[in-house]
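Appendix B, Record 12. Input sequence as logged:
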Amino acid sequence: MSTLQTPFRYDFVGSFLRPQALKDAKAAFQAGKISKEELDKVINEEITKVVAKQKELGYHVITDGEFRRTFWHLDFMWGFEGVDHKATGNGVPFNDELAILDDTYLVGKIKAKAHPFVEYFKFLKQFEDENTVAKYTVPAPAQMFQQMIIPTNFETTRKFYPDNEGLIQDIAAAYRDVIKQFYDAGCRNLQFDDCTWGALVGDAAKLRYKSLGIDLDDVKAELLKVNNLALEGKPADMVINSHICRGNYHSTYFTSGPYDSVADYVFAKENVNALFLEYDDERSGGFAPLSKISTDKKVVLGLITTKSPKLEDKAAVIARIKEAAHYVPLDRLYLSPQCGFASCEIGNKLTEEEQWAKLRLVKEIADEVWG
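Logged structural output:
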């Protein structure tokens, strides 16, 4: 078993653009032209190729590119008892388009069961070697909590949970169970992907919650509570990091705003090992909130964008790393793209070669800064 731990000086969030062969196979399966076994064979082949590419680029972390899922977050939620979904054509408004997502809602109390993602991890783990370690990405507990109390789900959720506290406790318990399943399967590096904090930042969020009659500080306390409860009892030799995002769908975003209003909660008090932070443009604000990050956390600066094929200026990125080092020591800083390249299978608006060029740039900059 690899004992390497994330993050690395040059790192990435986890998802990659779906290759054409994978898209074609999925379309053929949905049309009834190939079997599930034939689809799985193509998926396994494409994961094998994308892992080889990550190694070829010199990265020490490997993922399966999230090739087995449609959505970065919802597919994982479907792996619990009490959760169901259906495709309705509904979605969430992003800045330029509607992000089409399956309706995902409760049909009973949330409980853990043998989670399919653990089996997916086992396939990935076989590719570990002395230079690389596998990490698996899952939505944060807070993400599942928020999914079940969005306005369209609120009434249904209240049939099973009269208040948020019971929902928080069950989500946390189910996550603790699945974290143990991952651990028992040999996973030592897990990543929570969390858009909930990004949804709270900025003036638009203040107005949205005010119109609902909800106190934002109460929301922050609940998000922190469900995440930290899920992390209780985590094995000492298991790294769990968190990636905070403001939305990433077909090169569009959900919210804008600096981290200032959430820093006292997630930066200071969330019990993860490292934070992957979106900092690829002015929507993320400045680095001053980094001063709130507890000294036991590492910080991965997402300074390279996955939303555009344009390559960043190396000197400008290095200057930003040095600026961030005024708030967090350089030896606790790391570099990555701000998000995945395909949070949902639709992917962002760049080519596979442009995707790899971004990762080459991340490594070049990290090598220059940290040696």
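Residues 122 and 185 are 7 Å apart (CA to CA).
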